[in-house]
Amino acid sequence: MAIAEFAPDGTLTRANTNYLNLLGYTHEEAIGRPHGSFCLPVFSEGKEYAAFWQALLSGQARSGIVERLRRDGESRWLEATYTPVVDDQGQVVQILKIATDISERLQEERARQQHLQLLSLVANASDSAILISDASPHIEYVNAGFSRMFGWSSEEACGQKPLALLAPDKDEAYSQEYQAALSAGNPVEREVIVQGKNGQRYWAKVISNPIHDHNGRWSLTITILTDITRAKLHEVLQRKALEAMAREQPLAEVLELICLEVERIAPELTVAILEVDEQGRMHPLAAPSMPEEHARRLDGVVIDESGSSSSNPLWDDYSSSLQAHGFIQCWPSTIHNRQGRVIGIFGFYTRHTHGSLSTSLHQGLADACRYLCTLAIEREHTRRRIRQLAFYDALTGLPNRSLLQAKADQAIAIANRNNEQLAVLFIDLDRFKNINDSLGHPAGDELLRQVATRISETVRVSDIAGRQSGDEFVVVLPQCNAESVKETVGRIQNLLSQPMLIAGTSVSISGSVGIAMYPADGRDMETLLHRADMAMYQAKHCGRGNFSFFSNEMNQLAQERLMLETALRKALQEDQLRLHYQPQIELASGQLYGVEALARWTHPELGEISPARFIPLAEECGLVGDLGRWALQEACRQLSEWRTKGLLIPAVSVNLSPSNFHNLDLPRMIADTLQINALTPQDLTLELTESILLDTNPSTMKTIGEVHAQGISLSMDDFGTGYSSLSYLHRLPVSELKLDRSFVADLEHDLTAQALSNAILGIGKNLQLTVVAEGVENETQNLMLRDQGYPIAQGYLFSQPLAPGELETWLARAIGNTAA
Ligand code: C2E
Ligand code: CA
Ligand code: CA
Long-range contacts of range 392-397, CB-CB < 8 Å, 24 or more positions apart? Predict the structure, then answer.
């Protein structure tokens, strides 16, 4: 303790060592100095000092914290008491001063203060809201983050109960449990939706830590609230929605789940989600908590994509009726796909004024909602595209075969259950190929598209229309009878016959329709389709634009055909076919010019079957390749056999179908056959028909050229009946024309036939082609042809086509005649 005595005039009279050391003076230096010289000049020279000393002299003691100057100029803080000492007369004789140096303590206190200041700076700068409450619990402190997040100033918050303030919807039990955990000394961590001064809501992570005083009593709680709205939305909303998508739940279900989840998180909201189609029309997808009629009213309404933010397509025109339902506002958000097109829109509707709608929670919900809706709708679009590709015809947009089959199966099942009839129509466009060839494929495609549109416009919604292939369409008509089918078919055919504008040209088309009825004609789609197809062929036979019901005769014919096909296959395999040969005569000399090989088939049960029947059948069922090869090899073998026998047969003609020339191997096969049989190319003629000109297969011309190059003659069969333009004769390397037998048949009575046969002979002569007249049956025809100058003739007059043995006999007789 520093002790000093001052005289009433202020001079120092006595001081102990502590005092001297405190102020840095020696005894000699200090004694006699005035009190004021130990003080800071601001104090000692002021009025306050005079008052201070006056008070002492009047007998009043003084104490307090004072600042004093050391000899070296530094200052010291003292806790000092000045006590006046009075004598018997009450006179102040001296002033006693007792002081302790508190400079150190003061400094520490200041440092602590500074530290506290820094701490509160940290607390205030934090984004988290921090509050300190006492054990009662009432708020004692909130940081700036708290005010920023919740809107309450420190004054407003202090003294309030934290839970009542931030989570008023939590009940007493919740708060008790919270307090109980804290009083047990445990920190408490919760994720709760909290609410600010203006109703703004957050999903917050709340951590409370109890603080104990030095007696171990729980005195304070420090609570930190962090906004985890976004993370939480991600966790709750996105997880659920994404899971639903991964489970392939339908779009409407996924979106409904999103609506309900948003409404659960923010009960003040009601959500509606709508799709926006490419025309900008809205279609409700999910609005589980909205009045149904509102969604209905929005359906088909066009939204303004210019995005003028002032208009709200989900509210503006409906505000009064929505208000009647208690809604007071709507916050719309558009949904864009990755290309930036608006593919949807959703609205957050509120019923009560829950403050502003763009709080952090709502913003977060809208963001999450937008993201999830984009995902879900785009996903649905992709799914639709895949479905479209898999189940719809790319050209016409009609269901393809697989979808048609599936839908038809369904319709048949229903018809079966309800005991109803059902019709399957097979529609084939007439002469579509002509249009395709003359106007080009793009025009053909356009025509098919228009036909598809017309067909789907004609039928009822419950009917199923699909594209079968090429120019074939199929329509399934549930719940109908023969009469109503005829009516529908009439409508379709009528609509098809209306001219269409294709590639700038007005085109009229017709369709042939075959009809098969369930259950009379079949009980499954495959049978019905097949039979409708057969009926369609029947209709085609009656001319263009007809229709035909499937009938049992048709079926019988088809059955027969199938049987015949199987039998022909077998006949080819088992070598049951034979060749007959018809002589061709040089008219001038009566000599044999050659023989034509004609196929013959004797069926074990059906007997003789005409080539006019089995050749087209072989063509249709892909047997004509085998048949051609067989005929070539057999004819060559036979000719070679005759040669060995010494018979004079100049050449053999073999008939080939156009598709025989698709085979690039044909020239080599012919060469091999000739070689094996020791024949020369001049021994063989190939007869082909003008239909070869319609053949588009690229191999055909190549094969023909190669065969010709080998030195084999080509003969144009049935000349004059087919192609109208003769210019092809330049391009096809034929060396022989066969005047069709219809000209010969008419020769006697028909001047035109005479003129034509004459003209054809002229053409042949000019082009240096041999002309053979076919089907010469009587002497008159023979003479007329000879007069016209025909070099070669063939027909019953000379001989029927003959079996090899018969030909040998015929030949022997004919040579005998000639010789005679
Ligand atoms: P095509 O090539 O015009 O054959 C001539 C047809 O006329 C033969 O009928 C023949 O029997 C018949 N014919 C001959 N002379 C007379 C006559 O004076 N009056 C009448 N009315 N008819 C006569 P076929 O044998 O029934 O053959 C019919 C058609 O079948 C042939 O017509 C030919 O196009 C085709 N064909 C026959 N064999 C073969 C073959 O091996 N391969 C191919 N691809 N087609 C063949
Ligand atoms: Ca022929
Ligand atoms: Ca012929």
Answer: 393/452, 393/466, 393/467, 395/445, 395/448, 395/449, 395/452, 395/467, 396/448, 396/449, 396/451, 396/452, 396/453, 396/467, 397/452
CA of 64 to the centre of ligand 2 (A): 144
Q: Which helix (H) or strand (E) holds 615?
A: helix 611-620
DSSP class of 193: E
Contact status, residue 558 vs residue 521, Cβ threshold 8 Å: no
- pLDDT per residue as tens digits for the range 174-227: 888 888 888 888 899 999 889 888 878 888 999 999 998 888 888 899 999 998
Q: In whole angstroms, give the CA distance from residue 157 to residue 226.
A: 18
- Residue 343: per-residue pLDDT: 93
Please give the torsion angle defined by the CA atoms of residues 369, 372, 378 and 383, in that order, rounded to the nearest 10 degrees: -130
Q: Which ligand has an atom closest to residue 775 CA? A: 1
How far is C-alpha 646 from the geometric centre of its chain's CA atoms? 77
| Contact in structure between 85 and 93 (CB atoms under 8 Å) | yes
Q: What pLDDT digit, counting tens, does each position of 726-755 carry?
A: 778 888 899 999 999 999 999 999 999 999
Given a contact cutoff of 8 angstroms between Cβ atoms, the answer to whether 287 and 297 are in contact is no
Task: Judge whether 298 and 330 are in contact, CB under 8 Å.
Answer: no
pLDDT in tens, 531-587: 999 999 989 888 888 999 998 887 787 788 888 899 999 999 999 999 999 999 999
pLDDT tens, 223-249?
999 988 878 887 888 889 999 999 989
* Ligand 1 pocket: which of 580, 598, 653, 741 to mutate (most atoms within 8 A of CB): 598
Q: What is the dihedral of CA 489, 492, 495, 499, to 10 degrees?
A: -100
Percentage, residues of the chain above pLDDT 90: 65
Ligand 1 atom 8: residue of nearest CA: 598
Predicted confidence at residue 820, as pLDDT, reads 39
Q: Is 660 in the pocket of ligand 1 (CB under 6 A)?
A: no
Residues with CB under 5 A from ligand 3 (ion): 717-718, 774
Q: Which two tokens stand for residue 486?
A: 């005829």
Say if residue 504 is exposed, middle or buried (CB neighbours under 10 Å; 0-12, 13-18, 19+): exposed
Find out whether the beta carbon of 598 lies less than 6 Å from any atom of ligand 1: yes
What mean pLDDT do residues 40-62 have? 92
The tokens 């098809």 sit on which residue?
A: 496
| pLDDT at 144 > cutoff 50 | yes
**Integer-rounded Cα radius of gyration of the chain:** 57
* Edge-to-edge strand list for the sheet holding 75-86: 12-15, 2-6, 92-101, 75-86, 62-69
CB 181 within 8 A of CB 206: no
pLDDT band for position 353 (cuts 50, 70, 90): low
Residue nearest to atom 22 of ligand 1 (CA): 775
658 lines ligand 1 (CB under 6 A): no
Nearest CA to ligand 1 atom 3: 718
Nearest to 497 by CA among 451, 535, 542: 451
> What pLDDT digit, counting tens, does each position of 258-288 carry?
999 999 888 889 999 999 998 899 999 999 9
> Rounded to whole angstroms, what are the CA distances from 432 to 429, 458, 505, 670?
6, 21, 15, 37
pLDDT at 819: 44
Angle subtended by helix axes 611-620 and 552-573, to nearest 10: 90
CA dihedral 571, 573, 577, 578 (to 10 degrees): -160
pLDDT score of 727:
77
Distance (Å) from CA 596 to ligand 3 centroid: 10
The mean-pLDDT minimum among 213-222, 248-257, 408-417, 645-654 falls in 213-222
Residues 6+ apart with CB under 8 A from 511: 427, 428, 429, 430, 451, 473, 492, 493, 496, 545
